[in-house]
Amino acid sequence: MARPRKTTATSTGKIGKENIKERQEQEEKIRLDNKNLKAPSYLQETAKVEFSRVVEEAKKIGILDNLDLSILVIYSNAYAQYLEITQEIENMERSYRYVTEDYKISPLINAQDKVIKQIMSCSSKLGLATTDRLKLIVPKKEESITNKYLRYFDG
């Protein structure tokens, strides 16, 4: 089974200057517009706020485009659901918050767990955590301009 192709920024193998240039051109062609990412009207207000927050933060590093819209909608919706479920759990009586009277886990806890898994899955695809962004974009090394023969001279 072949490994998935990496971007030129994340590729560590030797591929040559011509191949690098060609790959960068290909990557630029598939890059889509990210200026029109707007929250769909059917999202709850909390989800719209989170959607807009993520879009604004992602614009700074340019990792989202229009094809990420569906994942971003799922993430935003799950985030809003998480807040609602967490609020309901907090409003429950202390004695029934985590275990019901017949010693089963509350359905709210199960729902919260499922929503958390959905949030984590979508956030890794969107690069919302630092470790996920590091997989998507490798910062370019700053080349220091030094003469390798200067170490042989005194002073």
Automatic annotation (TrEMBL):
Instruction: Quote the InterPro entries the UniProt record gives.
Output: Phage_term_ssu_P27
Q: What is this protein called?
A: Phage terminase small subunit P27 family
Where does the source fall among the domains of life?
Answer: Bacteria
Instruction: Give me the stretches of Basic and acidic residues compositional bias.
Output: 15-31
What are the start and end residues of every segment in region (Disordered)? 1-31
